[in-house]
Amino acid sequence: ITITAPGSTNGSQQISVTLTLTSPPATIGLSPANLSWTFVEGTTNSGSQSFNIANTGAGTLTWSVAEGASWLTLNATAGTTTTESDVITVTVNPAGLTPNVYTAPITITASGATNSPQQVLATVAVTAKASGTATLTWDPNTEADVAGYKVYAGTTSGSYGPPVDVGKVMTFTILNLQAGKTYYFAVTAYNTLG
Length: 194
Fold this sequence. Notes:
The protein is an all-beta fold. Helices cover 0% and strands 52% of the residues.
């Protein structure tokens, strides 16, 4: 930009202007956010499900994925996407797992993404060879910042064991219930701050 003023003692002056254009940021998109399997104790056959990674922002999303448990295996651990969805196959090996509910995060990170890291929650339920179940269903919490639900179970009203984080679903099946016992259940919602 050149500035001139007739009669000035320093003549014309210049101001340099620099314009730098950067690519808009990438954003991690996931679908679905939860995966779940149910196996009978002693099962040695693996089970597979998949989730999609997409770039819901702009530019190129360079992602990496890591599983949070030894019983999980991923078919890919890194890649890039611009407009297409990348499919990640998750395989569970239930061999050696005793009756219980196991949860583990699958963490997706992408340098420069506005929402990195993100997680897909993997849940594996292993049932005893002869056991009962109870399926719980609840209405969703209507608050805008709900991040998920925790399910509690116990044999005394108001006294429960450790919770199972089931993510953002509104139904969950409790496994390994013994015949002749009375069980009590509770469900709590948690927000993005926990």
